[in-house]
Amino acid sequence: MLMLQQRSLNILELIMGNHNITMKDLEVKTLLTRRQINYDLTRINDWLLQNKFKEIKKQGKEGFLFQNDTNEVLKALLKENVKYILNEDERLMAIYLYLYVSREEISLFHFTEMLDVSRGTINDDLKKLANQLEDYSLKLSYSRLRGYHIEGEESTIKYVALLLITKLIDDNRSHYIFHLIMEEQGLSLFNKLTSVCKTCFYKANIHFSDNDLLKVTYIATFILMRGRGIKEDFLQENNFVFEGHNEYAVAGEILDKLGMDHNEHIEFLTSLLLAFSIGDSYLNTPDYPMLKKIIEKIMIKLEVSYGIQLNSKEEVLEQVYAHFRPAYYRIIFQYPIVNPLKDKIKKQYNALFKLLKDILEPLNLPNNITVSDDEIAYLTIHFATLIDIDVTTVNSTKMIKAAIVCPNGTGISLLLYKELKNIFPKVYFLKPIPISKLDSLRDDIDIIFSTKLIKATQPILVVSPIMNNLEKATLIKNFYRKIGKTVVTENYYVEDLLKVIIKHAVVKRPSELKEELNNLILNYSYVDGIEGRQPMLSEIVTKELIQLNVEAVDWKDAIKKSATSLVNHHKITEGYVKAMIDSAEESGPYIVITKHVALPHARPEDGANELAISITTLKKPVEFGNSENDPVKYVFCLSALDNITHLNALSELVGLLGDHAFYETLEKAKEPSEIINFIEKYEEEMSLS
């Protein structure tokens, strides 16, 4: 029986999810060379023919010809007799988790039997795993009495196991590896636990994303299989009161149905439910007032300190709470979080990410625990969906209806929802749903967008929640091919280009040329939404907008005088100056964003004519009423035109305000050009880092 490696499976899933995907698309999505892809395609076709399917054929620029029923191929892949070859990274994770749950003496034979590789390969893997474990102060040891085992703090051993479980689930690589490790006893526990949990969660109205439900059941299974020191070693927040939470009662019911000891397991299981269930702001849980207060602080900082208007406060609170509540408990209980989209989010939503990081770092969390970049990235996509310009809702009765299936959680699914609505404004998208609810909607939808390949009767497109321009262009072409139409996106640039071509050449088939030009331009010119053109700080701060050693009698006078240059250069109106003062009086001292620094601003409609920031240093500091950060010595007046275009410059300013050398420059500068030069040098250094 031919065995497929994970890399080959990934390529097969990409082709099945997007039949018109091209070789270039595969290179972009997989980061593989054309030679590597061709090698995997040969293996895939061998497997398809072996299982009585038709092979995949290349069609040049038209992509690949896939002539099989996707659902039938998926069924064949899920059969127990299909055996996959794990890559090196997966083998190391499998070895660690096998050592974690096993209670018998482990030898090389166990590993070679389980992974179906040679002793030499296992020996190399064990050396590499030992090196990796040194980063966690853990040791991979061997003795005649115990065989291979892991030595170190039990809490750290558990943490690494949970990290690997989380990583495998978020990478959609969990099913085969976990079942390889758990064997009969573990699978029996997992199946029973899954059944009991689903019943109890439904009864208690506790909800999870598809992936987070998997995390709860797999983590619980692995922890219970190991069966060591759960109560003593696992929980880091020893003063936490569990009894008042609904999750505590649900955990007790689950343990009763499993016939397990409450005293040993209930706090662990409660922490697990708190850390991965979706927060519901309507349930009025005992922790709601405390968590609401933290979220409101974040919202106030975004609005008052950074000029990002959040129009529907209730909607913002509800959506952010859904993610923030489990994130809070993951932080205090130190559950590992792996955000597979972190790097993409930090790149595409860089400015918003930096601002949220600046807001979240000073939060006083238990035991001085900090919020990880993975968690901040998830919060970033929540706010990204809330501050962007809404796509106009259209009449759903005359449109193509689409379902969005995303197992990763509410934040990522809402980001995908927003992204797809922007790309396909003439398609009616239902709100994202978990895989389990898809069957109830199949008769009402025309096409399915999913972040993973699933069995479906309707056409399905596999998409990434965050796409680059090439991926978006490819998705548009594949979408219209799926529904039996050509690309209908019009581009005025194409119209002008076509006129020039017709003027100087004979065009036999203008309509076909227009379509091809549309597709070509689309590949290179698709504009991203929220993170479109956002100027750098040096582009919106000029020498004329910088004032040095200005005298001010009080905070109102400081704002007025700092805004003078903006008024004189028609960046804002006089009404905007009054609005800034009114806003500061209404919102209190939040415009003092850090020690000795104020960032006054108003709403765009109050009189902002052009994006700009003025810089004013005061001769004598003045009190703004912020006991923590007063007195103010530096005033940065912001003229923002919307929620978006000033974010990059603002995040850059936040970075500068963390640099002591910037303050020295502000203090010692004799000419505005010295400050401009410092900003430009800072930007140059940041571009190289």
UniProtKB/TrEMBL annotation:
Q: Which domain of life is it from?
A: Bacteria
Q: Is Magnesium found in the keyword set?
A: no
Q: Which Pfam families match?
A: Mga, PRD, PTS_EIIA_2
InterPro entries recorded for this chain?
A: Ascorbate-PTS_EIIA_comp, Mga_HTH, PRD, PRD_sf, PTrfase/Anion_transptr, PTS_EIIA_type-2_dom, PTS_EIIB-like_sf, PTS_EIIB_2
Q: Which terms under GO biological process does the entry name? A: phosphoenolpyruvate-dependent sugar phosphotransferase system; regulation of DNA-templated transcription
Q: Where is the PRD domain?
A: 286-393
Q: Name one GO molecular function term.
A: kinase activity
Q: Which UniProt keywords apply?
A: Activator, Cytoplasm, Kinase, Phosphotransferase system, Transferase, Transport
Q: Where is the PTS EIIB type-2 domain?
A: 400-487
Kindly list the GO CC terms recorded for this protein.
Answer: cytoplasm
Where does the PTS EIIA type-2 domain lie?
A: 539-682
Q: Where in the cell is it found?
A: Cytoplasm
Q: Which PANTHER family match?
A: ASCORBATE-SPECIFIC PTS SYSTEM EIIA COMPONENT, PTS SYSTEM, EIIA COMPONENT
Its name, as the record gives it, is: BglG family transcriptional antiterminator
Q: Where is the organism placed in the taxonomic lineage, from the top?
A: Bacteria, Bacillati, Bacillota, Bacilli, Bacillales
